[in-house]
């Protein structure tokens, strides 16, 4: 059985930093292409249609999509944790039950999310104070986008299954295929047929269908223990409960992040269309950092899960330290690059001088503080990999969401300005990181998870 794991990047074997890089690079490349196909919408729409359309496809709609999709992806992440632990412990029958339950859950969740999003999204956009000139473009875009929720969740769950067992290469390849499809269709639908934001939404949905078909073909034709069979698709009640117990706090954490970001977005909306467009363009540049740090988070969750399941606790701890150092070094390099070339990157989205000036002022304010966030991503990912997801959610609720709401509701009115609004990010990151570091170093979480899971440390 150990040979099987060596064929999938040797997560429980070999030199840790090398194995982390082998696992990390396909994830970050895949995430890069995912960011690219989101960015393609913004670039083509911003240049071909205008700044109002740019604000529509990335500002308020992006925040709302992150809220709803993030919840269901977070819940389904419980399956990835369970599958990685079963794979590390060589419990292949249990892993198969988890895989089939997760696939069926993604279909049901996708249908529910499609209905909720298409019906209620316009109302929520108005609650967020989205300007009417932006709403004209935002409503058709978001309705088309939500029509593609089933393939979107199928891809996310399917790729999570592959990564949980150590295969981060094929999800990357499938995202590259989807990205190329999206870019070509963006050019055809938006610039050729002049379908505006509807064309951008349709291009995204069709590209998600491509990625979902590819990942499902892999799962259904594989000879690995995670093979999906249509006849075996059923909701295993006990497995579903385990998935929800681990994934629900992660989903709620995603919702809390998104709700606090909606509050921020509503504040940004109050400053007008130019600021919304600048914030949207910044969000695409900012995505370069988030795709990288989230890839480290996915990597350490899988490393922690498999090594915890295998009882290799010392290797798990060393993996966390190595991953933290790699993430910190990468963050410093990326922050420097974005500060030096951020204005040039913003210029890909708009030629409006005022929007560019505003966007670069945002970069100078937030980018130097990225380093204060990485403890949240790495430590929460590691702890969640062992199945402990409730406390990380509580820490996030307290450190990020509640304090951010207090900042916007109480402190911002005392000095209503864009810099004051955006300072809520580094302040809450710093406080939450400090709480995660304390929680991790105390170690009670690990002893509790080992006792609950019946894991005995090797050696």
Give a structural overview.
It is a single chain. By secondary structure, the chain is mainly alpha-helical. The chain has one domain (14-453). 83% of the residues lie in helices and 0% in strands. The chain contains 17 helices and no strands. Helix 2 runs antiparallel to helix 8 (196-221). It is globular. The two termini are 19 Å apart.
Terminus-to-terminus distance: 19 Å
Low-confidence stretches: 1-9
Q: Give the helices and strands as they follow along the chain.
A: HHHHHHHHHHHHHHHHH
> What is the averaged pLDDT score?
85
Quick structural summary:
By secondary structure, the chain is mainly alpha-helical. The protein has helices at 2-6, 16-48, 51-89, 92-127, 132-146, 149-164, 169-192, 196-221, 237-269, 273-309, 313-346, 353-366, 374-385, 390-411, 418-422, 424-442, 444-453.
Topology:
Layout: H1 2-6, H2 16-48, H3 51-89, H4 92-127, H5 132-146, H6 149-164, H7 169-192, H8 196-221, H9 237-269, H10 273-309, H11 313-346, H12 353-366, H13 374-385, H14 390-411, H15 418-422, H16 424-442, H17 444-453
List keywords for this structure.
single chain; disordered N terminus; 17 helices; mainly alpha; about 450 residues
């Amino acid at each position: 059985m150990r040979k099987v794991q060596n064929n999938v990047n040797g997560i429980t074997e070999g030199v840790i930093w090398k194995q982390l890089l082998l696992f990390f690079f396909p994830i970050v490349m895949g995430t890069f292409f995912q960011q690219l196909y989101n960015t393609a919408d913004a670039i083509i729409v911003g240049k071909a249609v205008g700044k109002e359309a740019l604000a529509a496809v990335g500002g308020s709609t992006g925040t709302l999509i992150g809220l709803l999709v993030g919840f269901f992806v977070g819940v389904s992440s419980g399956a990835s944790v369970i599958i990685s632990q079963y794979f590390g412990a060589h419990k292949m029958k249990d892993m198969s039950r988890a895989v089939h339950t997760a696939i069926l859950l993604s279909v049901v969740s996708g249908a529910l999310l499609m209905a909720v999003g298409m019906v209620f999204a316009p109302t929520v956009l108005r609650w967020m104070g989205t300007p009417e000139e932006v709403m004209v473009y935002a409503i058709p875009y978001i309705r088309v986008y939500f029509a593609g929720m089933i393939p979107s969740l199928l891809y996310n769950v399917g790729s999570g299954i592959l990564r949980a067992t150590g295969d981060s290469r094929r999800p990357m390849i499938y995202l590259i295929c989807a990205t190329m499809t999206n870019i070509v269709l963006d050019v055809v639908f938006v610039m050729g047929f002049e379908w505006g934001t509807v064309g951008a939404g349709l291009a995204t949905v069709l590209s998600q269908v491509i990625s979902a078909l590819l990942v499902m073909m892999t799962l259904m034709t594989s000879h690995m223990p995670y093979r999906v069979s249509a006849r075996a698709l059923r909701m295993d009640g006990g497995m579903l409960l385990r998935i929800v117990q681990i994934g629900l706090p992660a989903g709620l954490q995603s919702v809390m992040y998104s709700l606090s970001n909606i509050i921020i977005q509503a504040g940004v909306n109050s400053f007008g269309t130019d600021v919304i467009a600048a914030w949207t363009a910044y969000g695409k540049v900012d995505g370069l950092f988030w795709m990288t740090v989230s890839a480290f988070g996915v990597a350490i969750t899988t490393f922690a899960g498999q090594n915890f399941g295998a009882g290799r606790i010392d290797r798990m701890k060393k993996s966390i330290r190595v991953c933290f150092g790699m993430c910190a070094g990468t963050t410093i390099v990326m922050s420097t690059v974005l500060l030096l070339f951020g204005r040039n990157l913003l210029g890909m989205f708009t030629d409006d001088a005022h929007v560019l000036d505003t966007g670069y002022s945002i970069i100078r304010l937030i980018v130097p503080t990225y380093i204060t966030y990485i403890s949240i991503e790495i430590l929460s990912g590691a702890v969640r990999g062992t199945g402990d997801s409730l406390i990380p959610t509580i820490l996030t609720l307290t450190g990020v969401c509640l304090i951010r709401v207090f900042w916007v509701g109480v402190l911002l009115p005392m000095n209503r300005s864009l810099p004051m609004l955006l300072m809520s990010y580094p302040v809450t990151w710093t406080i939450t990181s400090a709480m995660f570091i304390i929680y991790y170093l105390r170690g009670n979480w690990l002893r509790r998870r080992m006792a609950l899971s019946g894991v005995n440390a090797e050696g």
